[in-house]
Design goal:
The complex is a heterodimer of chains A (371) and B (230). Chain A is α+β, with helices and mostly antiparallel strands and 371 residues long. Chain A contains 9 helices and 22 strands. Chain B is globular, with a radius of gyration of 20 Å. Classes of the chains: A alpha+beta (371), B mainly alpha (230).
Chain lengths: 371, 230
């Protein structure tokens, strides 16, 4: 089985050099990095909206571009859907005709998704007869996603589709992107500089920095390693998949159980047995070398130190293996020395907060929750 | 009420016909040149730009004389076109050609500005949805540039209704064939007792120009509403 995306390109524009090579499989791949790192350029190159000086791009085994062999399929024949940062809907067409726009060109391909199915999935049925000018940012972006889907692409590129939206609108759209990833079975490349989005959505993360690939790997591996992130090291953290358990009506705490152990979090309105993905920021993990006593924090995970990386002058990132699940803690170097931490050492991790995905439309659940 | 003589009616009818033909015939070439100037990057672009704008700057009588030299019966193109039955000199078709040439810079300018104002990111989005270059042009560029294209058409029509110098130089002032509204007004001012007729036609001329402007304004508003910007 060939990789979904296989890219190896370089280009120079003014003072900016891009030299990017990576392969990614199915599911959602996040392109992560600060602005100016080359994320959007990579999207433009894959979509065929820009040409590299040199390189090769293949999607699902089909070569779209190969400068050496003189292959350059134009954008309109690539069958790659793009959702841009701004929705870029056609202002002179109704929502219905915007949605149908790409469909007209894809008519020859009988496979793919039905119009009504997409409209239902994105919740835009009531907007069909409106004009794009009358839509909110979130509505316009959902229409843009639907329009891209209905052109029956083999790959969907999303270029910071939430960046222009406020938090409430983001929370409104994220579930749709998850459904897209899980139900439509469409490979997605998702550009973002927000750790929370990447943590929530991505299977694979490609970190770009200064036009180069700084890191690539599974979302949980990359996001745990602050030194790999190259940006926002304070945002680094572990990703844990947990199963929702019973909620204690007296304390209002919901039990989450996972490989790492058990965590109690404020009441989580999800049914028992649901799988949730949580992010534990490294800065909110404390370490103790003995089981702590007389501590207000309730969430304690036992594990073994795997590795210790220096982070700048004064800080260290400690990776802990908790029964197979990896956790990261950001400590001062002085603490690492005083606790005599070293790989193999048994430690107790005190988890001060976890970040949740806001679940469902319009739920104003805070991003990170003290526990 | 205005009491027009048959000759005056003829001049009005001829003017409308000449202006309509001149405008309609220059729409497609005008759009092509506007597209080329707005989007093309090629050597000689400045030359084409200059040539298109030349009639705006040259004295109309010079443009008319150049037309006579090239499209007259013994002109370079005129002789060849006469072979296949197309004659411009001293015909109403010649008047239409002169009007089209004189209105062309105005038309191209309006179209070009509106094409340049089209958001190219929308065209990119259309391409990612599977639209090839011609489909992008027909479904995105053209509809979005339509207000400017219409404005260009109206400007060219208004210019054609008022064109005098190049027309009279190229195809003279023959009642019923090449005597358009301005030529008729000119003739009336040259004969004793023609003032009343000249005034009547002047009023008609003002009314027609106003009507053209109003119609274009209405169309532009309706389009703006359709584009969601109004």
């Amino acid at each position: 089985m060939c990789p979904t995306i296989d890219i190896d390109v370089s280009l120079t524009r003014g003072g900016f050099h891009l030299d990017v090579a990576f392969t990614a499989g199915p599911g959602l791949t996040a392109l992560f990095g600060r602005s100016g790192s080359g994320k959007t350029t990579v999207i433009d190159l894959v979509a065929g909206l820009a040409r590299p000086d040199r390189g090769r791009i293949a999607v699902s085994g089909e070569v779209l571009l190969d400068t050496e062999r003189g292959i350059a399929i134009p954008a309109h024949r690539r069958r790659i859907g793009v959702v841009f940062q701004q929705a870029r809907l056609m202002p002179h067409l109704s929502v219905r005709r915007n949605l149908a726009y790409g469909r007209a060109f894809a008519r020859a391909r009988s496979d793919g998704i039905a119009f009504d199915g997409v409209v239902d999935m994105l919740g835009i049925g009531h907007l069909l007869d409106r004009r794009p000018a009358g839509l909110s940012g979130g509505e316009a972006q959902r229409v843009a996603i639907g329009r891209a889907l209905l052109s029956r692409p083999r790959l969907l590129l999303m270029d910071e589709p939430l960046a222009a939206l406020d938090e409430a609108r983001k929370a409104e759209i994220l579930p749709y992107i998850e459904r897209l990833r899980d139900e439509a079975g469409l490979p997605i490349v998702y550009v973002s500089h927000a750790v929370s989005e990447v943590a929530r959505l991505a299977r694979t993360v490609v970190v770009l920095d200064g036009g180069r690939v700084a890191a690539i790997g599974d979302a949980d591996t990359v996001l745990r390693r602050a030194d790999l992130l190259a940006v926002q090291e304070t945002e680094a953290g572990a990703i844990l998949d947990m199963v929702v358990g019973e909620t204690d009506s007296e304390t209002g705490l919901t039990r989450l159980s996972g490989r790492a152990g058990i965590l109690s979090v404020p009441r989580l309105p999800r049914s028992v047995g649901t799988l949730v993905r949580i992010r534990v920021p490294a800065r909110d993990v404390l370490l103790a070398t003995q089981p702590p006593v007389g501590l207000s924090a309730r969430n304690l995970l036992e594990g073994r130190v795997v590795s210790i990386h220096a982070l700048g002058e004064a800080a260290s990132m400690v990776e802990i293996d908790c029964n197979g699940a990896l956790l990261a803690a950001r400590l001062t170097r002085a603490s690492v020395r005083d606790l005599a931490l070293a790989p193999g050492r048994i430690v107790y991790a005190v988890v001060k907060s976890v970040a949740f995905d806001p679940q469902g439309v319009g739920t104003a659940r805070p991003e990170a929750v003290e526990i | 009420m205005l009491d027009l003589t048959p000759d005056e009616w003829t001049a009005i009818g001829l003017s409308l016909k000449v202006a309509a033909v001149a405008t309609l015939a220059s729409l497609v070439p005008g759009l092509g040149i506007a597209m080329l100037l707005a989007r093309g990057r090629f050597p000689g672009r400045a030359l084409i730009d200059g040539l298109v704008h030349l009639p705006l700057i040259l004295p109309p009588v010079v443009t008319g004389y150049l037309l006579l030299l090239s499209f007259g019966r013994r002109g370079v193109f005129g002789a060849a076109l006469a072979e296949i039955g197309i004659v411009f000199s001293f015909r109403w078709t010649g008047a239409a050609l002169a009007c089209a040439i004189m209105g062309f810079p105005l038309m191209v300018r309006a179209m070009r500005l509106s094409i340049e104002a089209v958001d190219r990111r929308l065209e990119q989005a259309a391409a990612t949805l599977g639209a090839g270059p011609s489909a992008v042009f027909l479904t995105v560029t053209l509809p979005l540039a339509m207000p400017g294209i219409l404005a260009g058409g109206v400007l060219a029509f208004a210019k054609a209704m008022g064109e005098f110098g190049a027309t009279i130089t190229f195809v003279s002032n023959i009642p019923g064939e090449t005597q358009t509204l301005p030529s008729a007004i000119y003739s009336l001012t040259q004969v004793p007792g023609g003032e009343a007729g000249a005034l009547r036609l002047t009023l008609i001329s003002v009314a027609l120009s106003m009507a053209a402007l109003l119609i274009s304004e209405l169309l532009a508003r309706r389009l703006a509403r359709r584009l969601g910007t109004g």
